[in-house]
Amino acid sequence: MNAESVTSTSLSDGVRRALEISLRGTHELLPQDEWVRKLQRAEATGTPLRIKLGLDPTAPDIHIGHTVVLNKMRQLQDLGHRVIFLIGDFTTTIGDPSGRNSTRPPLTREQIEANAQTYYRQASLVLDPEKTEIRYNSEWSDPLGARGMIQLAAKYTVARMMERDDFNKRFKAGQSISVHEFLYPLMQGYDSVALKSDLELGGTDQKFNLLVGRHLQQEYGQEPQCILTMPLLEGLDGIEKMSKSKNNYIGISEDANTMFAKVLSISDELMWRWYTLLSFQSLAQIEALKAEIAAGRNPKDAKVALAKEITARFHSAAAAEAAEQDFINRSKGGVPDDIPELSLGGAPLGIAQLLKQAGLAPSTSEGNRLIDGGGVRVDSVVIGDKALKLPAGSYVVQVGKRKFARVTIT
């Protein structure tokens, strides 16, 4: 059932609005007609729907690419539904094979617990903590035991499991697939049974796992959940999906100035996709802004507005304003007001050694590379001589656009 046929029926204004919000920026909503019926039932009975998002704590920090699904959760939360933020402390011990061409090594319990400590705190910058149910899937997965695991495995076939794209490709390529990897989608699906979820969210790479949840709910005599997949957010380069390994990410725990500057670095084309997936402005407001840009307004105005909105979400409105001023100062060659200050001995001190000791470069060789690239300034003067030694004194040292330090050499 497509969006046009759904909205053309006699839906109430509330259900129509909820459907529009559900579909905003969404890759797929399946089955859409079932979701409409769930929305209608919720409106008629006043009973909120149960909406689930599971995240495995595989890393200690969340970047804004992860917040695409969190934003959708918040939008549904604001409609009055119950959102369940599920921390996959059990499934992380298996390792999610989604999109992998090799077995993912499982994390230790200590690593999982350390990462999980920060997950909800960071997610709470997007979700309303007062209206969020926090669960850990070890609650029901640990008690299953060997007998329960075997009974669960009996509810899904190997043939169905091999329909999964990454398993199929690895099998045809002669690459190993461990038996425990089959357990991951089963355990994620069992989470939906345990939570009696009405809707589960995930990235496009999670579609198979989400569908397993529907199947298992039916096997256990429950009404099956609908699934909603969100696209994977392109990173700062506008090409690859946002990833720490690609260094094209914005961490939500990064300082306000860095966050603001990184948003401003994206292309004008990518900006609109980020507006759809990350901004809380309505689609009508975004379309109006697009029209203003098309009519001649500077696209940078829209990008600044987006940078301030994102920065304020994870810091504060005041921090976003200060970050904008900091960016203006830097673009004019000015020095930010608040920069690290440190003292170093050994005058006269070689410039590459100074960069390393000041934490502006990880090594002297990297410092030399930055100098060769024209990325190092001392008191606003570009340094081109790698053999330069600075005598005793105080200097403002700059690397790139955002790294500064006030260094006193003795």
TrEMBL record:
A GO cellular component annotation in the UniProt record: cytosol
Coiled-coil region list: none
Gene3D superfamilies linked to this entry: HUPs, RNA-binding S4 domain, Tyrosyl-Transfer RNA Synthetase
Short motif ('HIGH' region): ranges: 57-66
Biological process per Gene Ontology, one example term: tyrosyl-tRNA aminoacylation
Catalytic activity from the UniProt record: tRNA(Tyr) + L-tyrosine + ATP = L-tyrosyl-tRNA(Tyr) + AMP + diphosphate + H(+)
SUPFAM superfamilies: Alpha-L RNA-binding motif, Nucleotidylyl transferase
Keywords assigned: Aminoacyl-tRNA synthetase, ATP-binding, Cytoplasm, Ligase, Nucleotide-binding, Protein biosynthesis, RNA-binding
Motif ('KMSKS' region) on chain: 241-245
Enzyme Commission code: 6.1.1.1
Protein name as catalogued: Tyrosine--tRNA ligase
Gene responsible for this protein: tyrS
